[in-house]
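Figure-free illustration: sequence to structure, shown twice.
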Amino acid sequence: MSETPISSSASQIYTFKQARVLRERIIAAVLFLAAFSSVATTIGIVYILLEESWQFFQQVPVLEFLTGTEWTPLFQDPQYGIWPLLSGTLTTSVVALALAVPLGTIVALYLSEFANPKFREVVKPALELLAAIPTVVYGYFALLFVTPALQVIFPNLPGFNMLSAGLVMGLMIIPSISSISEDAMRAVPLNLREGSYATGATRLQTALNVVFPAAFSGVISAYILGASRAVGETMIVAVAAGLQPNLTFNPFSEAATITAYIVQVSLGDLPHGSLEYQTIFVAGLSLLVMTLILNIIGYFLSRRFREIY
């Protein structure tokens, strides 16, 4: 008479274990599909870029593409030198990083080492809201507010220029750099700070000489992410920097970036399979290579300065 309840309880435990194993397998399958879809999407993008770029290089020599100083693929006398687009991309990115890296680092140091917890809990999410603003809004902000303000200081500044576009891109990147850098600094063990204070160092000396070097690998990752966002930014440069490919590194000049060119010609007017159509993909491949180089540099720098506590 007493064996029936025990057998029923054991059966319930066995059923519960089976259900738990089934749930874990479903979750593992969903996670695998999510990871696989990301990898498959990346492979698909790279395949399309390489395939169309290969067709492009069947008609345009690689040397002409890499060394040419004019980019006029839509003209009657087309030229396919990528340097005018590269110079615009690099110049706007350098201007953006010149603003975002120091300001983002200062904000991260302040939030990590000087701000009280309540102030940090309010300011950090508010700062990260800047990253949620659509980039086309930033673009018109650069064109309609920043450029006229800069023209008060520089009267000869043209309406479309790389300076205002780069500065607004820097404002857009600051939240990414400050947020990731602040997380890296707060991960530095407390005993390093206490050891610094024990030697008589001030809070500022501790922040600059102990916390920042200890968190440098994470800070470098934030810088690389910011640089990648600057290189790949589209709407701000398309609206504020102009669409005229010029081989110049002068930020006061108008120029086109790689992303701006892609936006300019990707309107569905070009015949599929034409050489003009394939320039979209070869420009995208150039952008992919630039971003890949930045990520490789970031990977090795992170490994070089990584601290294990």
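We now fold a second protein in the same way, so the two outputs can be compared directly.
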Amino acid sequence: MNAMAIGSVGEVAPQRAGFLEPLILKGGRTLASYELVYETYGKLNADRSNAVLVCHALSGNHHVAGWHADSPKKPGWWDNMVGPGKAIDTDRFFVIGVNNLGGCHGSTGPASIDRATGQPYGAAFPLVTVEDWVASQARLMDRLGIERLAAAMGGSLGGMQALQWTLDFPDRIRHALVIAAAPKLSTQNIGFNDVARQAIVSDPDFHGGNFYAMKTFPARGLRLARMLGHITYLSEDLLGEKFGREIKGDDYGFNYEVEFEIESYLRHQGDKFAQVFDANTYLIMTKALDYFDPARETGGDFARAMAPAKAGFLVVSFTSDWRFPPERSRQIVQALVKGGKHVTYAEIDAPHGHDAFLLDNAHYHRLVAAYLDNVAQEVGAGRRERTLIVGGTELEEMKGYSGRVKP
């Protein structure tokens, strides 16, 4: 990665915004003050109409595109989608990525110092919801002088935030791009999340969430949680194609050591994740997923719940996504159609499972680009000047894996 990389926004640096106005959370608690870390790419136009907010999924953060000076080989998590000439074209759009409250990459979260105690929040950090994130993001937009977003978008939990924007701030968002998302979690998904949380809280090093003071970390629990989650992000066909039933030695060892390549791969992913993520943040993010249910207050009537929305919608699903399968996206579409909203829907044929929303797929990228080309025309951001660039990256989650794993 370097400054000459085609379609890259180049070197970027995080920015920080502090808020002293208390934020009353959905769960009844209040954050007296907080900080948000964010990055921007492209330029805000004169009438401030070309802003696109990119919302991140469970393990994402504010670093959406480009690279940091101290990590030039690690681009942002949606670098294949965001940049000059890419689907989210920074020649025309001002793109904002923000680390959500409760996160572990700079915004106020469990590892942050609580000013009231001088100690890390730990277990005292309140549970936050998608609604809380959207409220805090709206304040950041106020700070940036953006009255109305051209679009909010994201995949998975990010798509849920884009949906929530259309409900909580219908006059502040023109379009929502809801990708690989669902109107609420299925029972199975809530079950997956709870198993992951139990892996963390039952780790002897968890200490009720106050492990910071103990100078330890529940790495084993977080590792198991990630291994479980990772299985659900990929399709069975992809895992089978990549690993099959390959074993690392010449024959079965008839023991519980790592034998199959898939075991080695999952442990590698778990170890890597546990080195960079916070266990309390994992708990908070999965609970936010569980709680998301806009139709809860309308007795399950999602069409009625979406009534306040005024935005146009692009809803995208992927054929092999079994965590949020296409029928869940179609439920969103059906509700929007029933409510007379403007909605475009596409089901992308992709073999990668839920994580397909992060990957290169020419059809998918062209679809997003075409939709945003129309948005650019609508907000006066002009026409695309370059040929569309589709990333050229390999499957991000499998980068760096070469069979290396500690038993």
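Summary for the second example: The two ends are 32 Å apart (CA to CA).
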